[in-house]
Amino acid sequence: MDQAAGGVSQAVNMMARYSKNLAITHEVVCLDDPQATFLKEYPFSIHALGSRKTSWSFHPALFSWLEKHLSNYRFIIVHGLWQYQSLAVLRAIARHPEVILYVMPHGMLDPYFQKAPERRLKAVRNSFFWHLIEKRLIKKADGLLFTCQLERELASQSFEGSYKPRQEHVIGLGIAPPPVRTAQMDIAFRLHVGIKPDIKYLLFLSRINPKKGVDLLVNGYLRLQKEIPDIPALVIAGPGMETEYGVEIKKLAGENGTIFFAGMIAGDIKWGAFYSCEAFILPSHQENFGIAVVEALACHKPALISDKVNIYEEVKNGNAGLVQQDDAEGTYLLLKQWMEIPASQRQAMAQNARQTFEDKFEIEKTTSVLADLLLCEGSLIK
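Predicted structure:
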């Protein structure tokens, strides 16, 4: 449940935290150290069984816990695939057929993961686990839960012929409105990064990972800077700068004085980054939902994203940002188009960003969809 681990833990947090007022009580069982300080931040019950033992997230205590406690629950939602939890749940649910089982893939059935050239070995591994475990879990589940319509459509393309869910439900995903902007947020961010108060900037905030297209962003930025020297600065924030890819990104940026690396940010520093930026940019090769995209929209910031971010249609239809392909030319065009937009149009897009958040991604609306499913449709399954 460490938020630094990525979107799944953030999604689980939002779903559990904001379902309390809808007659639904979430409890989470996870493979974290029970003494981890971040667990104290959550206002719902967490059963932390200890850190995982392998890269497959194996832990002998998980099946034992499920076998002993599963009968205390009406529903179980498995978040994510490709790890030991799938097998543990399959074994445990066989002994508790009265419990309703849902699986929420969180984009892990996206064909990108089977087709990307740099993932060939992982694709072979996934194929093995699919036929051995995951397709059985999908078939056994009473329903699959998706964050958006595009994720649902893509899910059937990775393992055509053996993908046979009983039901599919698009329940959405959302976030709570961000805290009210304060001067301290802006100060905290600029002090953290070392950006002067008068410097405008574009913001990338996500994991520093090849999937996120950070190399495309830096190359596109450097290309456009040759044409438009006074282009806003670029802030790249998120965990992973110490990785091999992160080191490559820093080398790519070179000694450029307008590209800033912020590392992992949270709290006032994170919200200061959002509120003070001109726009948010994410040229990802695959993004199931993009919580950071939604956070930007909630802060009245246009989203400049690739068409591989699964909520790009919502952004495009709401005129809340710009969309291009996830390649070098597309990323360059995102930046170039933004620079060419008149100030009045940027202001309108900022207002549209907030409206799109309120219409599509506000947490109370999305959690009510899940609650309706569990309380109404789900109760009729068994």
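Summary: The chain has two domains: 3-174+364-380, 183-361.
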